[in-house]
Structures are given as C-alpha cells and as structure tokens.
C-alpha cells in the first residue's frame, strides 16, 4: 500500500494536476443562483447580500499531485466552505471540481462516494474519535466500512499508527491520549484510507503551540515520505508559511492571491495581503536564494592574481570570490594576500577554501544565517548544484530582508568587506610589476594608473 514511498524524491510536487477547482461559487440563501448571476456580472458581495451570503466567489485553482496547498484567510473568508465543496460535502452553487480527473460536482451520490473512498480523505479540527474503540480500531474504522478483511485492515492501520509516531499506543482508548496524540490518530485514520488527496481543515488549530509545531513538522515529514497531495486550511499565517508549497489567500469569499510563501511575502498582490503578512516571521520563510544579490566581486581562477587585484580595487573591496568552470565556487581571496602574490609575480590564485568563509545553499532559511553573518566580514555565498555560485548576501541585505526594507540606493552598491589596501598602492604595484607580468598587462596597468 505504501509502494509510493520508494519513488518519492525530496521535492514531491509533480506536474500532474490532482485537484482542479474552476470558477467555484457558493452562496447560502434562497436566491443563490440569482446572486451568482449578479456576481458574475460584477456585483459585489455586499450588493448581493439581500439574496444570500456569498461565501465563495469565483474561486479557481489547481493543486499538483504531491503539493501542500494552503488556503489561508481570516475567519469568515470562506475557507471551510471552499474545502467542503472540493469533496462534495457542500454542493457548489456554480463551478466544477475534479479530483484525480474525476468530477465531484454535479455527480450522482454513488459516484461521489467512490471518489471519497478512493481519492480524498478529510481531517477536521476536532476529530470525532470513537470513544469505546481502541486507537487501532479507530484508525482501521474507514477500512472496516469499506469492507476490507480484518487482518488486512489492522495491518494497514498498524502501519499508519507507526508512521504518525504512535507505536505502543494502538491498544489504548482515545481518552488515554493527549490532544496532540488524538489528532495524530485522526491523521492516521485519514492516511489509512490511502487516498492521494488529504483535505485538512484547521487540523492543528486546537493544539497547544508546541505540539502544533511538532505536528506541522511531522506533517511535512510524512508528506515527504508519502507524496500525498494536501489541501490545508488555516487562519494562522506562520502555519501557512511553514507548510505551504503554495498559499491561496482568501478575503471575503474571493481568492486574492495564490503564490509561494516567498511570493506572498515579497510580492503581495495588494495592501490587504501586505498587511496580512506583515507580522510573519520572515526569517523562517525567506530563503537565501530569495534575498541574495548578484555577486559582484568575483574572479575566475584562471584570470590570476593581477586580475583579482584589479577587480577588488575597482570595487573598493578587500575580498573576491574565486570561481572555476561553470561558476563553481572555489574559495575567497583577500586584497592583502593577492597584493603579495602580485609583488612576487605569482601566476596562480590561492583561494581560501572550505569552512574559512560563510557559504550556504539557496534553500537555507534566513534564520539560519545570523551566526554566519556575524562570524565573518564576508558576504555569505549562496551556492546551488555542484557548488555553483548563485549570489551573495551581504549583512546589510540580510538585515534589509528581515526588516522588509530596500537595501540601498542603486548608486551605492553594498560592498563588503571594504578595501584594506589603498587604491594607489594597488595601482602602483600593478604598474611596477607589469613588466614582469607581460606587455599587454603593462598597457592596461598604465591606463589604469592614469585614471586613478
Ligand atoms: N451553512 C451556512 N449558512 C449560511 N451561511 C454560512 C453557512 N456556512 C458558512 N456561512 C457563511 O459563509 C461565510 C464563509 O464561512 P466559512 O466558514 O467558509 O469561512 P472560514 O474562512 O472557514 O471561517 P472560519 O475560519 O471561521 O471557519 C461566512 O460569512 C459564514 O457566516
């Protein structure tokens, strides 16, 4: 049953559409259809209020298989109504939903039940566990209803109990478990059904903050193992940001923005979203690659010490990143050391390597950068696959990203660290050593000398 575990990679999001919602409307009230018609013609939610409550207005989105898609919004914004329309718990007033290509709107009950059994499960905030049944029986309950033989359903239930970290609790009764554990039973029950799609409505909202955090982490881990498609509703922004591959922000029944947590933080669609996200713990959401700047002080290893020294002089900085083929980061050079190399007429750069300078991968959260940022005067190097240098994060940039302010004016690029060798000494050294370095270089050094 968990065969999918083997072939799931670290990034689970695939290109296959698991859930598609097209122009969904839900109006509660006797004249719902009239209200939808007016909404489609441009009427506002308030305009149609006499006809009914427009809980969801023209919601469209696609969720990819393996994605965690979070629906976020204030109380009353329409989240629960939206999610309940996906699995047919609520009828849509207008619009269509498909799950794994199977329609769940405007279909006979029998068909809907089949989709619910095979394709989509739901976890609620308060999971109604059966009090007189053991954890094991509660978890296996869905399979019992499906008519699976006892041995088989208990085997599957044991597996999911173990997956959610409840080994040893299978024979206990719900009242013997803490709130967090009970919620795990709820999740185990949904997982046992082995549907591709899980709908989770404020599933962790009733839990204490610490347990909630633990559950969030566990959900991400489980999702990593199982590659499920999860639609998760929350009004907690930090939870949305932590869990979501993408987030849909709802306001007054409408989806006002869909984007990655970083999109939503760095490029909010409107003032509402901007205000909504202003209290988010940016350090945990933003990653190194989302705030990095192009690395300016970079030299190619083959260019040699003279070129490195010129680069540092021109940028007024005391350090340069050295890259090899395909921009592989080889290390860092410092102006004083390179000056010595030039004086000694050395031809090969000797970059300082490895742990001597701060370097992180692009997906590192900003919260993990503080220590690195204070441990060195160098900007933090951001690398991608095969140690390719993608960009750098000077300390000012890190601070600016956390404070959500711009780094600088365009005319004044942030150069860290500042030069330690005066420009004229570098220029004079380059000129004085030009003869030994070669004629072509001499001409360049002379012209540089006259410019400074
Ligand atoms: N059965 C119903 N009958 C009438 N109005 C309803 C019904 N269910 C929801 N509504 C209204 O629809 C709107 C959206 O409610 P919904 O519960 O979907 O919002 P929500 O974002 O999930 O809020 P919460 O976080 O408080 O659950 C609200 O104005 C609500 O009062």
Automatic annotation (TrEMBL):
**Keywords assigned:** Amino-acid transport, ATP-binding, CBS domain, Nucleotide-binding, Transport
Q: Where does the signal peptide begin and end? A: none
A molecular function GO annotation: ATP binding
ABC transporter domain: residues covered: 19-277
Can you name this protein? Glycine betaine/proline transport system ATP-binding protein
Superkingdom to which the source organism belongs: Bacteria
- Which PANTHER family does this UniProt record tie to the protein? GLYCINE BETAINE/PROLINE BETAINE TRANSPORT SYSTEM ATP-BINDING PROTEIN PROV, GLYCINE BETAINE_PROLINE BETAINE TRANSPORT SYSTEM ATP-BINDING PROTEIN PROV
- Fetch the CDD domains from UniProt: ABC_Pro_Gly_Betaine
GO biological process, any: response to osmotic stress
Where do the CBS domain residues begin and end? 292-349
Q: Which Gene3D superfamilies match?
A: CBS-domain, P-loop containing nucleotide triphosphate hydrolases
Q: Which family does it belong to?
A: Belongs to the ABC transporter superfamily.
Entry GO CC: membrane
């Amino acid at each position: 049953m968990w065969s999918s575990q083997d072939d799931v990679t670290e990034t689970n999001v695939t290109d296959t559409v698991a859930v598609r919602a097209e122009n969904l409307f839900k109006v509660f009230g006797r004249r719902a259809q009239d209200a939808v018609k007016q909404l489609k013609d441009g009427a506002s939610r308030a305009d149609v209020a006499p006809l009914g409550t427009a809980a969801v207005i023209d919601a469209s989105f696609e969720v990819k298989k393996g994605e965690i898609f979070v629906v976020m919004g204030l109380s009353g914004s329409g989240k629960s109504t939206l999610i309940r329309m996906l699995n047919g718990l609520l009828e849509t007033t207008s619009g269509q939903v498909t799950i794994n290509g199977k329609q769940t709107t405007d279909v006979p009950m029998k068909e809907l039940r089949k989709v619910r059994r095979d394709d989509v499960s739901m976890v609620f905030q308060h999971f109604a566990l059966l009090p007189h049944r053991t954890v094991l029986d509660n978890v296996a309950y869905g399979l019992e209803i499906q008519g699976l033989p006892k041995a088989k359903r208990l085997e599957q239930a044991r597996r999911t109990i173990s997956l959610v970290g409840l080994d040893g609790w299978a024979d206990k009764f719900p009242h013997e478990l803490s709130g967090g554990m009970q919620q795990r039973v709820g999740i185990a029950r949904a997982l046992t059904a082995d549907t591709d799609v899980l709908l989770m409505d404020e599933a962790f909202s009733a839990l204490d903050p610490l347990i909630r955090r633990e559950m969030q982490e566990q959900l991400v881990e489980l999702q990593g193992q199982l590659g499920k498609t999860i639609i998760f509703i929350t009004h907690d922004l930090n939870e949305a940001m932590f869990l979501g591959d993408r987030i849909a922000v709802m306001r007054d029944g409408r989806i006002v923005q869909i984007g990655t947590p970083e999109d939503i933080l760095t490029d909010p669609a409107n003032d509402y979203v901007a205000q909504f996200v202003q209290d988010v713990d940016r350090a945990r959401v933003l990653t190194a690659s989302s705030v990095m700047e192009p690395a300016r002080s970079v030299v190619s290893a083959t260019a040699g010490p003279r070129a490195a020294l010129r680069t540092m002089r021109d940028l007024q900085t005391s350090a340069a990143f050295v890259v090899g083929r395909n921009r592989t980061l080889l290390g860092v050079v410092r102006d004083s050391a390179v000056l010595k190399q030039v004086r000694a007429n050395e031809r090969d750069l000797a970059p300082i390597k490895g742990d001597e300078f701060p370097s992180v991968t692009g997906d590192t959260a900003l919260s993990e950068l503080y220590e690195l940022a204070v441990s060195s005067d160098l900007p933090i190097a951001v690398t991608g696959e095969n140690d390719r240098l993608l960009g750098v994060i000077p300390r000012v940039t890190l601070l600016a990203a956390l404070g959500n302010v711009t780094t600088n004016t365009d005319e004044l690029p942030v150069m860290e660290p500042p030069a330690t060798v005066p420009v004229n000494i570098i220029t004079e050294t380059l000129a004085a050593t030009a003869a030994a370095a070669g004629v072509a270089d001499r001409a360049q050094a002379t012209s540089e000398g006259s410019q400074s």
